[in-house]
From TrEMBL:
Organism, scientific name: Natrinema salifodinae
Similarity comment text for this entry: Belongs to the Nudix hydrolase family.
Major localization listed first in the record, in broad terms: cytoplasm
Key words, A-Z: Cytoplasm, Hydrolase, Magnesium, Metal-binding, RNA-binding
UniProt-listed Enzyme Commission number(s): 3.6.1.56
InterPro entries recorded: 8ODP, Nudix_hydrolase, NUDIX_hydrolase-like_dom_sf, NUDIX_hydrolase_CS, NUDIX_hydrolase_dom
GO CC annotations, alphabetized: cytoplasm
Single GO MF descriptor: 8-oxo-7,8-dihydroguanosine triphosphate pyrophosphatase activity
Protein name (Swiss-Prot/TrEMBL): Oxidized purine nucleoside triphosphate hydrolase
Cofactor: Mg(2+)
Length: 171
């Protein structure tokens, strides 16, 4: 089983009295377009696999720095997601969000970062499960989820079959 993390940096930008502004109140999330490996070509949060001896928080901080050059702090745990492939746990993913960070998002070999208004998150270019849990996470909720995939490796070519979700959990 792979233990992995996702980190969603959040900010609120001032849009003044822009009449074209939508209902996001200027709220944005930093997504990455993944350039290689699992989920290549799709959008997701910065994140990746935990190294031996590393806590999930430490992993999320390290991966966010490595992938987009942002130093995140004060991570808030927002979710725990279990991805099953053909009945076995493939990946256990810890999800974090934060409004505290320093640095400027910078592209790396692994990822191209992009600030996205939370109403414009490109769910049709993301893992199929993201549309089920990410909107709630971006609204400040907590979630525990299980998502079942079938069809063998690699996970990003398997079929998403079904899921269970529990909201407002404590970690
Ligand atoms: C099944 N549905 C899913 N929905 C949303 N997100 C998913 C996911 N399944 C995996 N993820 C995330 O995708 C990243 C891959 O991690 P990552 O370690 O970068 O993979 P990759 O194979 O590129 O690793 P290396 O760069 O070789 O270490 C990692 O954040 C992990 O939490």
């Amino acid at each position: 089983m792979i233990e992995a993390t996702l980190c969603f940096p959040l900010r609120t930008i001032s849009r003044g009295d822009d009449p074209t502004a939508d209902g996001d109140d200027g709220r944005e999330v930093l997504l990455i377009e993944k350039r290689r490996g699992l989920g290549e070509g799709w959008y997701n949060g910065p994140g990746g696999k935990c190294e031996p001896g590393e806590t999930p928080q430490e992993c999320a901080v390290r991966e966010t720095r490595e992938e987009v050059g942002l130093d995140v702090r004060d991570l808030e745990k927002a979710g725990e997601l279990r991805f099953l492939l053909d009945g076995e746990v493939h990946t256990f993913c810890h999800v974090f969000r934060t409004r505290s960070f320093t640095g400027e998002p910078t592209p790396s070999e692994e990822a191209r970062p992009e600030w996205v208004p939370i109403g414009d998150v490109p769910y049709d270019q993301m893992w199929e499960d993201d549309r089920l849990w990410l909107p709630g996470v971006l609204e400040g909720k907590t979630v525990r989820g299980e998502f079942r995939f079938e069809g063998g490796e690699p996970l990003d070519e398997a079929a998403f079959v079904d899921h269970d979700l529990e909201w407002d959990v404590s970690f």
